[in-house]
Amino acid sequence: MIGTLTQHLTTLAPSAAAAVARAAEDAPVTDAGTAQLVLAAVVGIATIVVLIVWLKLHPFLALMIGSAVLAVVAGIDFVDAFTSFSAGLGSTVAGVGVLIALGAIIGKLLIDSGGADQIVDTILGRTTPQRLPWAMALIAFVIGIPLFFEVGVVLLVPVVMLVAKRVRTNPILVGIPALAGLSALHGLVPPHPGPLLAIDALGADLGLTLGLGLLVAIPTVVVSGPLLAKPLARWVALPPPTSVLGVSERDEDAPRPSFAVSVGVVLLPVILMLARTLVEVSGSIDTGWGRVFEFIGTPLVALLITALTSLVVLGSALGRTRDQVSKLVDSSFAPIAGILLIVGAGGGFKQTLVDSGVGDVVAKGISDANITPLLAGWLVAVLIRVATGSATVATITAAGIMAPIAATLPPTHAALLVLSIGAGSVFLSHVNDAGFWLVKEYFGMTVGQTFKTWSLMECVLSVVALLVVLLLGLVV
């Protein structure tokens, strides 16, 4: 994936690609021994955990400081402490940041146009009360593809509570399936930031990872969503809601896109990227049509095509002026500024791990311990996730540590390693995770009830996803 991104960046932005290449060539080196490098990894990661958990420092600053601490302890001259960090930040934003920005545009237009509402209303309108948990999982699965997790929660949880109010049922019964769908996509399926970052760090193929990610996500959502919701609803018996937090009144006379158009926009980048992968697998990449699919299936191009399409079908086609559409695009960037900074800083931390030699030492230790890389990646991500509460930081750190091992894996197992790390990154959301409190407040639960529902669901989801990944590792 790194090579592919570099190739496209060279075509689209030669000066940026050259700058990243020069920065990589100037990376500092160290001749520290194994013990010193292991100590550097422990101290660097511990610094990040302490800064985030105890001092409540923003993850961007924590990752930046942790990278410098790791570099210095590893024996890199303090003058060069940020050299690898800067190179990694630049290459990560160049490769992943643009994709996140394009995804934000698509998500903003989908919500503002009423396309997300159209998908929800259409599916719910054709669903019996007995099948509502499955319908909510399907809605979350479809809508969650282009939306960031927090946006999906804010969008869907009020719908969940409204449905629970209408049918007078426990909101856990319809809420857990929706949360499972959003969480699975957040951890396993690009273009979400975590999977994109892991793909870039591990050199995995995006189309292959996307296809396998969807394959893993489906049974994972089924088990941790509708099937798990029934016992959880019996365990935590919440009354049907009498009011719904966060539901805003929408002008029913305002035009909105059809169900087919809304779903088409959501699935378009997925279809384009999977089509490229199928062409590559079939060996038709050198044909005329193969070259076309290779181009339009490139992640950057696929998302750009989708973003431009959404400007038309979710913007001007609904009567919005060019100025209004432009303002919508502009407003889509502010919410992702923090995400871009964290992702970029994570890339810097990953590059520091690689350049200092820490990644090679840890990779050798894992190899000597005879732990399968898929399980090792999951375990590392779980430890960082539980300690920091951040799925993104867990993905970043685990990907950086596992990068040397990924280089020795075949393409399918490199993609599965991305998914195992993603599965570990969503394990046990608890009090140090903003998502924990978001779910608690929306559902009106106590801390204990939130642990029994949301936190338990995240654990089940993480373990089921790992088991599916391990099973796929035996057959692909």
From TrEMBL:
NCBIfam families: gntP
PANTHER family: GNT FAMILY GLUCONATE TRANSPORTER, HIGH-AFFINITY GLUCONATE TRANSPORTER
Record GO cellular component, one term: plasma membrane
Bilayer topology term: Multi-pass membrane protein
Organism domain of life: Bacteria
GO MF annotation: an example: gluconate transmembrane transporter activity
Keywords recorded for this protein, A-Z: Cell membrane, Membrane, Transmembrane, Transmembrane helix, Transport
Protein's name in the database: Gluconate:H+ symporter
UniProt-annotated location(s): Cell membrane
Keyword Glycoprotein: no
Organism: Cellulosimicrobium sp. ES-005
Membrane spanning stretches: 33-53, 60-79, 85-111, 132-164, 206-229, 259-279, 299-319, 331-349, 375-402, 414-431, 451-475
Family per record: Belongs to the GntP permease family.
Main localization (coarse): membrane
